[in-house]
């Protein structure tokens, strides 16, 4: 469907006012922030080139590949959401931006409402010419996080919380059935006590990916957002979430009335916590798991975690 435009943009935009893309690529004054984002973009481009065989298995994207790309027509922005990387708050912000005055404070929007798909428009809902036009002219961004920290965060949220019964039924029962010898009838029925080791074994089992794509909460960023096919103008990081988010809102020209919500979450998954979860994983399984997420590590410049015992 789409060919990559190497410049990721057209310089033709609105007369009189500078578009977010013009401000990003030809800043009025060159800032360290603009340089930082250029380095991040180059890292993605270089990784895609170096791994072109594995990264471009599918030459052409179909509209179905674009369901994670949220479109804001008013500010000409596209946000690819990655679960477990502040995506609830970014969806809330997108609802404020696209709601035409319906919402003013992102944090007044209940979390479950932010995930109702009809509240935001995604790129797969457009015709192919409209898709191409938006990919060429809109400012595109995504947020990434250290891959294993994101994975532990997904595991903690989906498999250790009692209220996530739909995940326990849909995935937990399958993981227990496949990975646990002598599982009890109750565990097979409920699937609500999956151990992290069993979750990892399920992820590296070749049968898993053959059967169906990974769930979006543990799918690679590279498969959700297609950074080797779509040229992202900004790559925000979870580690610098507020600065990166507010820079995007500044480029969009809305920073005078909209700030990214700050929240101190005491329960959030940290590096120390991730280290602990990986202690019980064999070096063989660690190596196989690293292979699954390797492109995310390379593309977004995350070093191999010091706690890994790779073979």
From TrEMBL:
Belongs to the sulfotransferase 2 family. InterPro entries: Carb_sulfotrans_8-10, Sulfotransferase. GO terms for biological process: carbohydrate biosynthetic process; proteoglycan biosynthetic process. One of its GO terms (molecular function) is sulfotransferase activity. Pfam families: Sulfotransfer_2. Keywords: Carbohydrate metabolism, Glycoprotein, Golgi apparatus, Membrane, Signal-anchor, Transferase, Transmembrane, Transmembrane helix. It comes from Sakesphorus luctuosus. It is found in: Golgi apparatus membrane. The keyword Membrane applies. Its EC number is 2.8.2.-. Its main location: Golgi. It is a single-pass type II membrane protein. One of its GO terms (cellular component) is Golgi membrane. This is Carbohydrate sulfotransferase. It comes from the Eukaryota. The keyword Ion transport does not apply. The gene is Chst11_0.
């Amino acid at each position: 469907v789409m060919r990559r435009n190497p410049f990721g943009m057209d310089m033709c935009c609105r007369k009189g006012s500078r578009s977010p893309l013009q401000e990003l690529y030809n800043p009025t004054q060159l800032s360290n922030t603009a340089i930082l984002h250029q380095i991040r973009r180059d890292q993605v481009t270089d990784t895609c080139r170096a791994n072109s065989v594995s990264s471009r298995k599918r030459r052409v994207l179909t509209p179905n590949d674009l369901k994670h790309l949220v479109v804001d027509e008013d500010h000409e922005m596209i946000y690819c959401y990655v679960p477990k990387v502040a995506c609830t708050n970014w969806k809330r912000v997108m609802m404020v931006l696209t709601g035409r005055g319906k919402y003013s404070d992102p944090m007044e929007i209940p979390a479950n409402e932010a995930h109702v798909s009809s509240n935001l428009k995604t790129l797969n809902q457009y015709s192919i010419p409209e898709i191409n036009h938006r990919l060429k002219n809109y400012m595109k961004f995504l947020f990434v996080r250290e891959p294993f920290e994101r994975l532990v965060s997904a595991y903690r949220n989906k498999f250790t919380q009692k209220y996530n019964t739909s995940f326990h039924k849909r995935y937990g029962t399958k993981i227990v059935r496949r990975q646990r010898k002598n599982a009890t009838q109750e565990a097979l029925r409920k699937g609500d006590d999956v151990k992290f080791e069993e979750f990892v074994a399920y992820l590296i089992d070749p049968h898993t990916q053959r059967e169906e794509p990974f769930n979006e909460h543990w799918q690679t960023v590279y498969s959700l957002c297609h950074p080797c096919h779509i040229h992202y103008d900004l790559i925000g990081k979870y580690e610098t979430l507020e600065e990166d988010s507010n820079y995007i809102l500044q480029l969009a020209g809305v920073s005078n009335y909209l700030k990214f919500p700050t929240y101190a979450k005491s329960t959030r998954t940290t590096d120390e916590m991730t280290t602990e979860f990986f202690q019980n994983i064999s070096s063989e399984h660690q190596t196989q798991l690293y292979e699954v997420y390797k492109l995310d590590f390379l593309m977004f410049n995350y070093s191999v975690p010091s706690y890994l015992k790779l073979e």
